[in-house]
Amino acid sequence: MNIFSRLFKIGQAEANSAVDQLEDPIKMTEQGLRDLRQDLDKSLHALAEVKAMAIRSRNEAASFRTKAQDYETKAVLLLQRAHRGDLATAEADRLASEALGKKTENEAQAERAAADQQKFEASAQQLDANVQTLKQTIGTWENELKTLKARAAVSSATKTINKQLAQLDSSGTVALLERMKEKVAVEEALAESYGEIAQESRTVDQEIDKALEQSAGGKAAADLQALKQKLGLAEQPQQ
Known about the structure:
This protein is mainly alpha-helical. It has helices at about 5-20, 25-85, 90-165, 170, 175-200, 205-230.
């Protein structure tokens, strides 16, 4: 592989990677829904036009049938007038023939319009089925979009949390917390050590004074008891 082919492959790979990054699922789904709604609008417009043509053909067929019936009625009237002597037979036959010819033409037009009506109605049914399918598809993907948005939100939050947890050690957060814990433990041990040293460093005089205080307290209690006995206030021991 020559250098140009390799460069082309690299560029192609980079382009595909960029496209993959741009393909946001939510945005792509929303765009797809917009496209479907445009297709639905076009289908509804086409359906309306085809239905209008079917209605027009139906009306034309009815109109041509009415005209054909009118021409037949006129032919009958012409022949009746000739029979009564109100109109020359030859003239009546000629005009009646013309009327019957018009009748035939209108009947043919009525049949053509009826055929067009059936064709347009069949097309309208097919278009209506397509419209219903599009509506159902749009409804399905609108619900799917709501689900995708919820899933994307949960996924993003989970990704953020997991990323933070994964980066705790690398960022030194856990190590910092462990150091602070160790520092507090050291401070506690140091405080306890100073307390023990202070206890051990009491002077002999302090110990003597403390012992005398305890003795004085005992003598005061004895003197109080003796005074109570002298006054007759001492409690008699229970037998």
